[in-house]
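---------- Forwarded message ----------

FYI, see the NUDIX domain-containing protein record below. Original note from H. follows.
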Amino acid sequence: MSFEEPTIAEETIFTGRVVQLKKLTVGLPNGKTSTREVIIHPGAVAVLAEPEENHVLLVQQYRKACERVLWEIPAGKLEANEAPDDAAKRELAEETGYAAARLQKIHTFFTSPGFANEVLHVYYAADLEQGELNLDEDEFVETTLVSREQVESMLTSGEIADAKTLVALLWWLGTKS
């Protein structure tokens, strides 16, 4: 049986600065039709930066969709025609002021495949050199250097609730064990 759902019709409901919302009419494997509401996203990057051995950079910022401050690794959306590697370097520099001599892609995944097509590229950055912050004018973050022990404690307590950050930190802890 084929699980594919060919698109029969599509309607753009909303176009914003970052995303589009589309209503799709799809054909189902059983021959019937249904609708899907899909968020179209340009993709994003996230960077787990280790400026000192066994210490990573985390940022805190308020996330309106969640109505709370979250601990996260630096991240941001891809610009038009921007390569993920370039975006990772740019976001790391903008949010933390650091430049990475070494950048390694560790994972690529869909963030919420039930309703969005966003692909997130997660990187590990090392051999860092401190520079200057260059935040967007509507971006307010606080960067903190966090030890391995603090990360483990934050994970155990549930203090870290952001999926990309969980993926990156669990990878990091697993590679450092």
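H. also flagged this: The chain has two domains: 7-40, 44-175.
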